[in-house]
Amino acid sequence: MKFKKVGIALFVFILAGVVIFTQILIRQEEKANTREIYYIGNQVVSLIALYSINDFKGDKRDFIIKTLMAYNFYQSLVYCFISDQNGTPVVSLTPGNIGIEIPNYIQTKSLAAMGLTRQPFKTMESGDKIYEFAKPIFENGEKAGTVRIGLKLPLISIISMQRVSLLAMLSFFIISAAAIVYYGFLHALKPLERFSGNISNRAGGSAAVSNNAAKNFNLAPMIQSFENAMVQFEKRFVKIETNNKELASRISVLRFKKNQVIHILNSINFGIIIIDIQDNVGHINDYMLNLLNMERPDVVDHPLEEILQYPEILSFVSHHNRLENLKANGHVDMVFPDLALGETFRISCVHLTDGDHGVIGKIILFNNVTGEKVAEKATLEFSAHLSHELITPLTTIKSYSEMLMDGEIEDHETRKEFYNTINSETARLSRLIKDLLNLSKIQMGSMSLNKNLVKFDSFFKDCLAAVEGVARKKNISIQMSLPDNPPSLVGDKDQLEGAVINILSNAVKYTPEKGRIDFELKEENNMVVFDIKDTGYGMSREDMSHIFDKFYRSNNPQISEQQGVGLGLAITSEIIYLHEGEIEVESELGHGTHFTVKIPKGEYYLGK
Amino acid sequence: MENNSKVLVIDDEAPIRRVLELKLKNRGFQVLLAENGQAGLDIIKTQKPDVVISDINMPIMDGRTLCEKSNGLKKNGSFLTIIITARINPEDLDWVVEMQDTVFMEKPFSPSRVVDAIDQYIGDQG
What's the angle, vertex CA A83, arms to CA A79 and CA A88, rounded to 5? Predict the structure, then answer.
């Protein structure tokens, strides 16, 4: 009777086990299939989207279709539609051969999407679960079409070899385990049965029986083993508790680390967007939120295409494959006139992997490279200008000497003119090189001033002597004004002289014939002041803002027709700054220019 | 060599104008001179030269603008344009291929080569 009940209970137990186990197996298989479908779908749709839309119209069409059909996913591929930007189908494949109706909302979303989309739906007739994967095809940074594929989850048959053998194994183990437990239990209860028998006998007051029983049954070892077991349990319990605490502290450390990572991401001064494999935003840092002028809840978990409506970026991110992680030039430079006017951002992309080999998303970086772009442009302009300035006198020297060598110049006077030109162009070249060396010395901070007491009576004369010749030729009068007691200062006489001569010779150069230049020296607030005023062509506002730039030459023909490379004032201003002085300029087009240079007198000790 | 061809030299650097003027005159060409693109364009319109030699970096109107403007005039009778430039970057000269009968030479140039290019063009024209 007893055995019958146990048998029925066992049978019901096994049956329930089989049912539950089968369900678990089916679920797991379904999950595995779904994962595989996700993987295949993402890969295939991304692969097809790499082709150009014209490839599907031209010669490559058959090859691409054949290659698609040859893949293993053939059995799960229900349809593949490729349409151009207007929605006109280019390729329609239905290897699944099922007349399924795709719900309109699925198609609409897929066609409108700017990134990878995945949408599940069930067919009306058979109830099959289909996943539609869609991705836009980009061409030249613009969406040119869409590829959509439908994959069906394979049917799971309840009776499969794997499942039957697993069930058989499971049943065998359950029955064996039940048998072992049952007999083991009965065996273990035997001493206790005897023990309880003894106790009841003792209660009955039969000392003889009790003595007899005590002889047969010793209680001490059993209690001892119970106690041992209890100690073991307690130890285990303590261990589990310790493990729990350890785990809890590890979790809080991890949480702290996660927060730290978020803090780090937020304090970085470039934009970061992390997207998952379906192009949904998983994380965005503060910099990027500021740049986009958006709030975090409006961004996180939203599709990338909603956040960044720039086809160039979406196309770049979508085309970016893992191999490009290794390429240095895997980036796109962009300006966002609506977000940050005049700023250039370099957008790069890195694949996010789960540490194994699976791609779980992408990190998109937005680095502001405006400064680098400006510097790059300035360097390019500088070298272009420099080569131009070097090549111009070289060209004259080469062509003139070639003419002389070829005996093309027979006339004595012309020959003399040619030699003179070669000579003056060589001087121009050497002046330019000297200026360049000076400039690089100043910029590298290696220009040292040979400071000494500079007396201005002789200084004044030297400056004048340097420009007098040209001024006389152009009939320009130079009016000098020097105080009765000329000031002196501590500085580098040669450098200061060079600076003042530069301003003076500019005044002579850019003043028309019969003009006038006023050159005044005075002392003001412990500073020596040079005032150089001319009645020349003057400068426009645009020119004024660039006069101290290297190689800047005005577009004004009156100025640009004069020889010069545009280094003089750049060097002059540097020399003045090295003397801790100031240079000011006032000018108006057609009304002359007025330079004021102020140099602190400095202290000079006799015998120093 | 007697030659009635008219050559226009456009350069803002006087020494370059001078050397080309002498070289071309020695070869019997009739030489016209201009200091910038605008002055050059005016001469092209009025004097109709057979050859134009031009620099690129010039005030008022640069050589590229001059070429683009004078290219339209070539419909009624083409002429050779020789661009002489110190530009190092060849990509800066991509536009030259768009121009009719236009070649470029790099500075520092050889005056003899300039004359060779003209002779060849005139020879080809028959």
Answer: 120
Which residues make Cβ contacts (< 8 Å) with residue B21, sequence separation at least 6?
A: B9, B31, B33
Pick the CATH number of A268-368 from 3.30.200.20, 3.30.1330.60, 3.30.465.10, 3.30.450.20: 3.30.450.20
Q: Nearest CA of chain A to the CA of B77: how many Å?
A: 31
Radius of gyration of chain A (CA): 46
User: What's the gap in Å between the CA of B12 and the closest CA on chain A?
Assistant: 7
Q: Do domains A2-152 and A268-368 have the same CATH topology?
A: yes
pLDDT(A206) > 70: no
Instruction: Say what the ipTM of the complex is.
Output: 0.90
Q: What CATH superfamily classification does A2-152 receive?
A: PAS domain (3.30.450.20)
Q: Which of B59, B89, B110 sits opposite A555 (nearest CB)?
A: B59
Q: Smallest Cβ distance to B108: which of A383, A394, A557?
A: A394
- Model confidence at A439: pLDDT above 50: yes
- Give A453-490 pLDDT, tens digit per residue: 888 877 888 888 888 888 888 899 999 888 888 888 88
CATH superfamily of B6-121: Response regulator (3.40.50.2300)
Q: Which tops the pLDDT comparison, A129 or A97?
A: A129
- Minimal Cα distance from B92: which residue of A? A384
What global pTM score does this model have?
Answer: 0.51
Chain A's closest residue to B111, CA to CA, is A399
A403 and B87: CB-CB below 8 Å? no
- CA atoms within a 13 Å half-sphere pointing along the CA-CB vector of A116: 27
Integer-rounded Cα Rg, in Å, for chain B is 13
